[in-house]
Write a structure and sequence with these properties.
The complex is a heterodimer of chains A (about 240) and B (about 325).
Chain A lengths: L2 H28 L1 H6 L11 E6 L5 E9 L6 H43 L13 H10 L1 H9 L3 H18 L10 H11 L4 H16 L6 H26 L1
Antiparallel strand pairs in A: 1-2
Helix pairs in contact in A: 1-3, 4-9, 5-6, 5-9, 6-7, 6-8, 6-9, 7-8, 8-9
Chain B lengths: L11 H18 L4 H12 L4 E4 L6 H12 L3 E5 L6 H5 E6 L4 E6 L6 E5 L6 H13 L1 E4 L2 E4 L5 E6 L12 H4 L4 E3 L6 H14 L12 H12 L5 H16 L3 E3 L3 H17 L7 H12 L4 E2 L10 H9 L13
Parallel strand pairs in B: 1-8, 1-9, 2-5, 5-8
Antiparallel strand pairs in B: 3-4, 6-7, 10-11
Helix pairs in contact in B: 1-2, 1-3, 1-8, 2-10, 8-10, 9-10, 9-11, 10-11, 11-12
The chains are: A mainly alpha (about 240), B alpha/beta (about 325).
Chain lengths: ~240, ~325
């Protein structure tokens, strides 16, 4: 149970206890008979009792002068009780309104939570770039990308060269979502420009190995990456040429 | 993140090849479901236990038996019923009149692969008898501790739709399962293939070949221990598990055992793919079966579509993936 639910439960118990106290106070102030039948106000009742004496013969003699008058608590004490009851009733009303507000807020939060999880998108949830724009960005950057592949250790060269695809995609208007891995994003980009799938797969595998493995990555890996990247560029260039003719 | 020095007696490529043959053999009995079977084998390679939760008749028990056969493990089956007692699983001391002493008679837990069938049909007292066995790979009976054989794996099955006469597994018990896997219904092609194969072999039983043995499985598990996990991938596992705790629909998120489970399962998955390193996509591939059963959704959302699975999906689309160039070396 969360802290909010605990607060609501405690408030509900307190409200119920307070209501019971109010009802008991009210019932005690007006007497048990008026709880069900009276007008709700404490009543002063007169109950005449007769003082009775007995004669030697056993017949009773009733004296009118000994008539007694009994009253319920005095006017001062009943007004105090009524005042206390009034304030308790006010407090109960405030508490009831508070509880109502909490219940309404809980209902609204639950409703919002239901609607929050199932957003209905107005359009498709992926970006699409124009293939020519993407190809152009790759081909413009091709020389730099190949040069990066020749610099430094094979591991760093492959990672740096792969990263250029992300730069090219961004230049073409395709952004990487923060939860997307580099490979997911780049493969999405290269798929949209219809790059050579086999070469892309080879280069992606080398990138993953270079980025996440610890084992030795030698010059053969650089050569393989170079071949794959050249194949990607050549395929896109020939496709681009074909489209322009 | 460098794993402890465990000298592998089998290379990753060799382990991947052997694992592929195990899967192929199991698929002779279980039609289709390659991905689900891969997840089960992933958990076994990662020295974990699996909860197979699905509707009746979808091949859960068959898959468990087939894995035991293909992996060459001792197999025992415990049918979990309301009157099953902990001693029925662990074993108990019985009086030997000839030797005038009590001797321990091991229960079905003393095996290589235990099929705990319909685990949610037995009361929590008996369910919890599995806890020590699953976590510490030992059982304690009357104060005496008995180690279980190596390897030891539990494949438990549960029916998710029946509530009458069942005892839902408590969170502490669920947390002990590395993966929760569902097979789902077969496609019509796969379902017809089931019928055709049955008609072709002219009998109910399926004879599978043993691909490896307990020692072979231990060697494969040692190969998994040699798999490298880059720090960024380890931190990604931690971030995913932590994000389940902060999701607004979640009452209780994944424990740290969840992030550890992600890492271990991702290593097993990497070996199945023939790699000696883990990539973030491995973590994503195992995150649903590793995390979903460790998440408790807020009770007021019981009428909505919120579930552990939807929350894992939401978390995967929130947590930042490892960067492209972090590990320049």
């Amino acid at each position: 149970m969360t802290a909010r639910h605990t607060t609501s439960a405690v408030a509900a118990v307190l409200a119920a206890a307070l209501l019971v106290v109010v009802l008991v106070t009210w019932a005690a102030s007006i007497g048990p008979s008026d709880v069900l039948r009276g007008d709700g106000n404490p009543a002063t009742t007169e109950t005449p009792t007769l003082a009775t004496t007995y004669t030697p013969s056993g017949s009773p003699i009733v004296s009118d002068g000994d008539r007694l008058e009994q009253t319920t608590p005095s006017g001062d004490s009943s007004s105090i009780v009524r005042t206390i009851a009034f304030f308790i009733e006010i407090a109960t009303l405030v508490l009831a309104l508070f509880l109502l507000w909490r219940v309404l807020r809980w209902a609204r939060e639950t409703y919002d939570a239901r609607n929050r999880r199932l957003p209905v998108p107005d359009d498709v949830d992926f970006e699409v770039i124009s293939a020519p724009e993407g190809i152009e960005q790759i081909l413009v950057d091709a020389d730099l990308q190949l040069r990066l592949l020749d610099e430094g250790t094979p591991r760093n060269a492959i990672v740096a060269s792969w990263h250029r695809f992300e730069v090219q995609a961004r230049a073409a208007g395709l952004g990487r979502r923060h939860w997307e891995t580099s490979a997911e994003f780049t493969l999405r980009f290269l798929d949209q420009v219809a790059a050579d799938q086999h070469a892309v797969s080879v280069f992606a595998e080398l990138y993953r190995e270079a980025r996440f493995s610890d084992h030795e990555l030698g010059e053969p890996a650089r050569t393989t990456a170079h071949d794959a990247l050249s194949a990607i560029h050549a395929g896109l260039a020939s496709g681009s040429l074909g489209r322009s003719q | 993140m460098t794993p402890p020095e465990v000298p592998p007696t089998m290379g990753v490529k060799e382990a991947a090849e052997l694992a592929g043959r195990v899967l192929d053999e199991v698929q002779r009995a279980v039609v289709g479901k390659r991905e689900a079977l891969m997840l089960v084998l992933t958990a076994v390679l990662a020295k974990g236990h699996v909860l197979l939760e699905d509707f009746p008749g979808l091949g859960k028990t068959l898959a468990a038996r087939s894995f035991a056969r293909a992996l060459g493990l001792d197999f025992s089956r415990a049918q979990f019923t309301p009157d099953l007692l902990p001693a029925d699983l662990t074993g108990s001391f019985l009086y030997n009149q000839q030797r005038s002493e009590f001797e321990f008679r091991p229960g079905p837990l003393f095996t290589g692969l235990l099929l705990a069938d319909e685990i949610n049909r037995t009361p929590p007292k008996t369910q919890s008898a599995l806890l020590e066995a699953m976590q510490e790979r030992q059982v304690t009976v009357e104060g005496e501790t008995f180690p279980l054989p190596e390897p030891f794996h539990v494949l438990a099955t549960a029916n998710p739709i029946e509530y009458e006469g069942t005892y839902p597994l408590p969170e502490a018990q669920l947390d002990r399962f590395l993966l929760r896997v569902s097979f789902g219904y077969p496609t019509s092609e796969e379902e017809y293939d089931v019928l055709a194969r049955r008609v072709e072999r002219r009998r109910e039983e399926i004879e599978l070949d043993t691909v490896t043995d307990a020692a072979g499985l231990l060697a494969m598990q040692a190969a998994v221990e040699s798999v490298q996990v880059d720090e960024s991938v380890g931190r990604y596992c931690v971030a995913l598990a932590a994000a389940t705790r902060d999701h607004p629909d979640v009452l209780t998120g994944s424990s740290p055992r969840g992030s550890l489970g992600l890492l271990l399962a991702a290593r097993g998955f990497a070996v199945l793919r023939g790699r000696d390193y883990v990539i973030p996509e491995d973590v994503k591939a195992v995150s649903r079966p590793v995390l979903a059963h460790r998440i408790t959704v807020k009770p007021e959302l019981w009428m909505t579509s919120a579930s552990g699975r939807t929350i894992v999906d939401a978390v995967l689309s929130q947590v930042t993936a490892p960067s492209t160039m972090e590990a320049r070396r």
